[in-house]
């Protein structure tokens, strides 16, 4: 097949085929002089790429699947990570509404350019759905909370700086948690004399147990430390009326 025929049969554009080749997802075509020819193997590979994208995998993970670096157990684990994100987005209410960046900007009343800068800096993290960046109600909630900080008088640059520092520290903790899972769960399971299905089942079950536990631990501890520091600050600089009002508020003592 010429590239135009491959694109037609695969239901993608020629530019998409070029992009897949550039990303090392699709092998180069055969050559007959200056003519490039594609085979059924290329068509099957594109179908596989599209199927993995629909399941929410990133191009980096897809590349490792296609190269054979990830085995079936790892594929099940990667799928569980994607599913956990989907479940978090739905929050138990069935299928959650998702929208693109423009839809998010409309819902929170913030210019799209501002949200684009947040995405570039990693402060706003979209979920991948069928290969597209999507946002949900949780993102609206978080951005609305950020707007409340601005409405309270906090300067935008300082709020951004706080968000960047928290993002950096959060990634450090998350990276350590994932490395612990890899060293003490994934690698030992991969070394066991079990079939791939059993390895995948145990790996996914452990992941589904540990991920919410780590999330609860980190969020609970941060809230407690935040309240503790706020109380200590009031005790150092606040007047008696402020301290009494804060102590009487259940939010400070919880």
Structure description:
The chain is mostly helical. The chain has two domains: 63 residues, Multidrug-efflux Transporter Regulator, Chain: A, Domain 2 (Orthogonal Bundle); 183 residues, Orthogonal Bundle (Multidrug-efflux Transporter Regulator, Chain: A, Domain 2). Helix content is 72%, strand content 5%. It has a two-stranded antiparallel ribbon with strand order 1-2. Helix 5 crosses helix 10. The chain is extended. The termini are far apart.
Give the biggest beta sheet. 2 strands, antiparallel
Order of helices and strands: HHEEHHHHHEEHHHHH
Q: What is the number of strand segments?
A: 4
What percentage of the residues does DSSP assign to strands (E)?
A: under 5%
Named at the architecture level, the CATH assignment of the largest domain is Orthogonal Bundle
The Rg value, from CA coordinates, equals 24 Å
What is the CATH T-level topology of the largest domain? Multidrug-efflux Transporter Regulator, Chain: A, Domain 2
Write the topology of this structure:
Layout lengths: L2 H8 L3 H9 L7 E3 L2 E3 L2 H15 L4 H9 L4 H19 L10 H8 L3 H9 L6 E3 L2 E3 L2 H15 L4 H36 L4 H42 L2 H9 L1 H4 L1
Antiparallel strand pairs: 1-2, 3-4
What is the gist of this entry?
The chain has helices at about 5-10, 15-20, 40-55, 60-65, 70-90, 100-110, 110-120, 135-150, 155-190, 195-235, 240-250, 250-254; strands at about 30, 35, 125-130, 130-135.
Keywords for this entry:
254 residues, mainly alpha, Multidrug-efflux Transporter Regulator, Chain: A, Domain 2, 72% helix
């Amino acid at each position: 097949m010429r590239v135009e025929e491959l694109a037609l049969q695969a239901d993608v554009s020629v530019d998409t085929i070029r992009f897949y080749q550039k990303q090392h997802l699709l092998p180069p075509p055969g050559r007959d002089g200056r003519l490039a020819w594609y085979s059924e193997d290329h068509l099957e590979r594109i179908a596989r790429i599209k199927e993995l994208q629909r399941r929410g995998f990133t191009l980096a993970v897809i590349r490792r699947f296609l190269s054979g670096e990830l085995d079936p157990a790892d594929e099940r684990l990667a799928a569980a990570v994607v599913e956990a994100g989907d479940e978090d987005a739905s929050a138990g209410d069935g299928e959650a509404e998702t929208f693109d960046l423009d839809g998010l900007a409309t819902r929170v009343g913030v210019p799209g350019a501002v949200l684009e800068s947040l995405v570039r800096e990693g402060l706003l993290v979209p979920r991948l759905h069928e290969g597209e960046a999507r946002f949900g109600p949780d993102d609206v909630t978080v951005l609305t909370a950020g707007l409340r900080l601005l409405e309270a008088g906090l300067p935008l640059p300082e709020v951004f700086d706080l968000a960047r520092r928290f993002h950096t520290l959060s990634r450090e903790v998350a990276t350590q948690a994932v490395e612990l899972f890899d060293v003490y769960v994934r690698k030992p399971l991969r070394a066991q004399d079990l079939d791939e299905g059993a390895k995948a089942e145990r790996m996914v079950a452990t992941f589904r147990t540990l991920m919410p536990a780590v999330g609860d631990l980190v969020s609970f501890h941060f809230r407690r430390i935040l309240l503790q520091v706020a109380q200590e600050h009031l005790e150092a600089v606040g007047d008696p009326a402020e301290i009494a009002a804060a102590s009487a508020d259940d939010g400070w003592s919880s």
